[in-house]
Amino acid sequence: MPSASTALVSLDLLGTLAFAINGAMTAVRTARLDIVGIVTLGMMTALGGGFIRDILLDDLPPATFLDGRYLAVAALGGLIAFVLGQRLEKLATPINVLDAAGLSLFAVTGTLKGLEWGLGATQAIILGGVTAVGGGTLRDVMVRQVPAVLHSGLYAVPALIAAGLTAAFDAGGLPLLPWTVVAAAVCFAVRLLGVRYDLHAPRPRDMKSRD
Amino acid sequence: MPSASTALVSLDLLGTLAFAINGAMTAVRTARLDIVGIVTLGMMTALGGGFIRDILLDDLPPATFLDGRYLAVAALGGLIAFVLGQRLEKLATPINVLDAAGLSLFAVTGTLKGLEWGLGATQAIILGGVTAVGGGTLRDVMVRQVPAVLHSGLYAVPALIAAGLTAAFDAGGLPLLPWTVVAAAVCFAVRLLGVRYDLHAPRPRDMKSRD
Amino acid sequence: MPSASTALVSLDLLGTLAFAINGAMTAVRTARLDIVGIVTLGMMTALGGGFIRDILLDDLPPATFLDGRYLAVAALGGLIAFVLGQRLEKLATPINVLDAAGLSLFAVTGTLKGLEWGLGATQAIILGGVTAVGGGTLRDVMVRQVPAVLHSGLYAVPALIAAGLTAAFDAGGLPLLPWTVVAAAVCFAVRLLGVRYDLHAPRPRDMKSRD
């Protein structure tokens, strides 16, 4: 049976891979980038959230920068997308699924790292949310889209749900496994339902003038 | 009479509130964001400048991230804008006034924090300017506008004036109160005059070719 | 004969100047910014890569922020571009040449700083690349262009070549001078050939659907 720490690293590497493929596929789909641009955007998407997390925690240089496994997995994800991108005609569905996977896993691991470093529950939940949406936000800014965190049907919400569940399970002394997986699965499901049914949190009522 | 430190925190929280409402109103006005997007943009606008300041100072984790009051005030500002945004038909004027208020207060508090941490006057003034324009720059990048600091009639200039006055008052040994308020008020007035009369610093002369 | 350290600082200041003029010229060319916007964009371009490098290395506050020479050179570059910008009708060529110069110099100095701080070769090479492309990426995001690092004919590639050569020369125990200059010159030549002949790394093959 894997130790808690090994499980955490595995989830984190899985999120890194999902985001790297996702970011690189976005590069293939949005603009005719060359292989360097594709791998670069994949790595930024995969590593960006963790870098922001580690800056906020003052864990510098970022753990995912010093640990060669993260760099290798992020680069690998970019290369996979480069190869697959030539085959797949429609990338929208895998892009969304991988994004939801990265979002779920990073929300959990970001929150746990915050708690480990002694943050309060509120701060740890925010940190989990930032870790989850950070890489995708960087990706969207780089390809000049309004970041998904601002407008997309339930993007920050499922991340914050997963972060909140993780903090609650931790406060309740529940074992890291399988409860972190439950938290990630809830986030994953809510996110995909949000995309599928175009769900949104409440919006301001119609304004007459929107000049 | 409040101590200097209490006064500084009060000014800082006031700037945080002003920028949070401003950023959230920008979200309401620019794009039809839902409540999560609105509050998120408000919090990024409110906390972004201070985060950049604290990264540059190596005061990590950022003070405004650990201190629950800043998080609460930033979230509150976003909620206020969400509610008000449904009522107000024209948001341009309050957006500008709140932006000028945040700019003025953060220019002062950013400079003072730099001096407290032992920076030279030049560095402290730049830090004050960065604190003041950082959150709004993040806001503008997120909603895909050219940041106000680059093009807007007198945006960085009043911030640097307030920062310079603050450093000068500090060097002269003047009491923090009321002189920081004077510095902020000058910045506030110059900024609003700049908006009102569309003032600019000198521009390069007309070029024939602008390919 | 200058010491290695003096040589390194000289190369770094030269790169700062090149990027400051480049960023400020971009501001003149892209948008009718006033002098404050021009100098600001120049300073962000010049100092951004080094700031990101120093955040990743945990060398905070950033060395280039504390050292007045960098601030002065960056501001000077912005002012030079403001003055020249009124004279030059076509800025595309000097913009590209200065960008290539900054890219080359920062790739070398960023890699060397990473090695000095004890990073492994892979991390030092990535750090050199990030230092080289960081300021230009910030510049492109600020003026709402897709960052050159993602799409431009050989932008990250020459930076990584220079970084790799620097790490190899260092591992081989070769003297810092003249070998860092060789590494920078190779990067400079590859970048300008890339621009001249619109060279790209391999791209994904044509996809039928690019919705």
Automatic annotation (TrEMBL), chains A, B, C:
Source organism (scientific name): Sanguibacter biliveldensis
One GO term describing the cellular component: plasma membrane
Recorded family membership: Belongs to the UPF0126 family.
Subcellular location, record wording: Cell membrane
Membrane topology: Multi-pass membrane protein
Protein name in the entry: TRIC cation channel family protein
Cell membrane as UniProt keyword: yes
Membrane spanning stretches: 6-28, 35-56, 68-85, 153-171, 177-199
